[in-house]
Write a structure and sequence with these properties.
By secondary structure, the protein is α/β, with parallel strands linked by helices. It is 41% helix and 13% strand. The protein has a six-stranded parallel beta sheet with strand order 4-3-2-5-6-7. The chain has a six-stranded parallel beta sheet with strand order 15-12-11-16-17-18. It has a two-stranded antiparallel ribbon with strand order 1-10.
Length: 509
């Protein structure tokens, strides 16, 4: 197997162009090449039109998302399972890998669609875990993957890109329904960021079904449960509030886990992407599940719809309590139903001039120093601006003392990255309340940070909903060819960020 590969699916890709020897994310060349092959055989499976493969296709796509699966043995197993479903005489001519399409613009659009499908698969995976599915979404994903093997025109690929955005809205709506019907509508909540004296288990990622099982199994064991990263918004759901050992949120965004996981002292469960290759001093406490994997870490399989976390619980009992790294509270839970409930108050604040601008700062956090821009931008906003956020980008500013406007916090956190759907619904509701014919006439601007493929499907969904003039950073995606980038700029007003002072003038003043 070649020691080199090519990957530019995440924002931190080497030199802003592409990783070729080892992924900035930490994946080896072997893992990267296996992920390319897994995507290829998944496309081939879709082209063969085999039935009853929905779950396999969703898992395969999800496993290749940045920071999800670093386990070459697991990827080989997925490839073998997929290949065994394809008739031996079924042939396609497409080559494996990102660079398999020679035409730069076609390659760019195909990758944009593929990454959108990966993000779509992640959200569908979580909905499936709660017993929710939509055959039309599965059919779209499979037919689109099959089409990506063909030599399509640029115009057809642009059309397919927008269709991907449409189905992206559908899948986020499905997951929103799954979460709210299962756990209740999120409500305004103060989340503790300190610790207690019991040993604990830390759960990271996004999967609320895993969290529910963990909380059930830790009852009356003397083991507390804390969230990390994108799992923070779980505290906003009413159903989880009944668990007395559900203590709070520990730490910050995903990339800080290499220091925070060690200080937690107890075992850590990674339920989805966001895994950073663990250090030796806490690797033996890392457990993975679902589409996540890392060589040498214990993987907890689902058996008959259940996962057994007893090994983690017993390990936790032998560990010291978490080391406290901060104290205080985070306020969140401003998903669409909660905001609708206080809509009159929000509208009045806009009408009387107390709120002059809403700034959507959803998306991803990351380790690059350039992301300090988002904290600085939040600090520089005028006091009559309210931030609407979702995703781990919030960690750049949610703990800042930004105050409130007439009791309305200046940072309204809707939840996880998929809850960007809530922000879209809020915008559409405000458009209706103010009697506007275009969502872009609202006093809302978009300054979104992206990192991986779930952010791609969120972006495509926003474009489908007609949102324009989105500022995307800290850099534009490396997989956008100059011509494709030009189309996005000219048709949708997609723009890059520059510096805080100039961007405040452009977006706010």
């Amino acid at each position: 197997m070649s020691e080199k590969f090519f990957c530019y699916q995440c924002q931190e890709t080497a030199g802003g162009k592409g990783c070729t020897i080892k992924g900035v994310c930490g994946k080896t060349a072997e893992v990267a090449i296996l992920q390319d092959k897994l995507i290829y055989v998944t496309k081939k499976l879709c082209a063969a039109k085999i039935s009853n493969v929905n779950k396999i296709i969703v898992r395969n796509l999800f496993s290749t998302i940045t920071n999800a699966n670093f386990d070459s043995d697991a990827l080989k197993k997925f490839i073998e399972q997929t290949e065994n479903l394809i008739p031996k005489n079924f042939k396609v001519t497409e080559l494996i890998g990102v660079m398999s399409t020679i035409d730069e613009d076609k390659r760019s659009l195909k990758e944009l669609i593929t990454y959108g499908l990966k993000g779509m698969a992640a959200y569908l995976y979580h909905a499936n875990a709660l017993g929710y599915d939509d055959e039309s979404i599965n059919k779209f994903m499979q037919s689109t993957l099959a089409k990506l093997l063909d030599d399509m025109t640029v115009d057809d690929l642009i059309k397919l890109t927008l269709e991907t955005g449409k189905v992206g809205v559908d899948v986020m709506a499905l997951l929103d329904k799954a979460n709210s019907e299962t756990f209740g509508n999120p409500e305004i909540t103060k989340v503790n960021i300190g610790v207690k004296n019991n040993p604990g288990i830390l759960i990271s990622g996004h999967d609320l079904a895993d969290l529910e099982q963990l909380l059930e199994q830790t009852q009356n064991t003397g083991v507390d449960v804390y969230t990390h990263g994108e799992m923070l918004p779980a505290h906003y759901y009413p159903k989880f509030k009944k668990y007395k050992n559900f203590i709070g949120n520990y730490g910050n965004a995903w990339y800080q886990q290499t220091t925070e996981f060690e200080k937690f002292n107890g075992p850590i469960l990674l339920t989805t992407n966001c895994l950073v290759p663990p250090k030796a001093n806490y690797k033996d406490k890392i457990f993975t599940t679902g589409a996540v994997g890392f060589e040498g870490c214990k993987h907890i399989e689902e058996i008959n719809g259940k996962k057994d976390f007893s090994e983690m619980i017993e390990l936790a009992k032998k560990c010291p309590p978490p080391t406290e790294i901060e104290t205080g509270e985070i306020v969140g839970g401003f998903a669409h139903e909660q905001v609708f409930a206080v809509a009159d108050k929000v509208v009045e604040a806009v009408k009387n001039g107390a709120i002059k601008k809403f700034v959507v700062m959803a998306g991803c956090d990351g380790r690059m120093k350039s992301r300090q821009y988002y904290a600085d931008f939040a600090k520089a906003l005028p006091n009559d601006a309210v931030i609407l956020t979702a995703g781990c980008a919030k960690y750049k500013y949610i703990k800042l003392p930004l105050g409130d406007i007439g009791g309305i916090p200046r940072v309204l956190d809707a939840g996880q990255c998929n809850d960007s759907y809530s922000l879209a619904l809020i915008a559409l509701k405000l458009k209706e309340v103010f009697g506007l014919d275009d969502v872009n006439k609202l006093p809302i601007v978009y300054n979104i940070a992206w990192y991986e493929q779930k952010a791609v499907i969120v972006l495509l969904a926003l474009l489908y909903l007609g949102v324009k003039n989105i500022h995307l950073g800290p850099t534009l995606p490396a997989f956008l060819s100059p011509n494709v980038a030009k189309v996005l700029v000219e048709n949708f007003g997609i723009g890059s960020i520059t510096n805080v002072e100039d961007d405040i003038k452009t977006m706010i003043e």
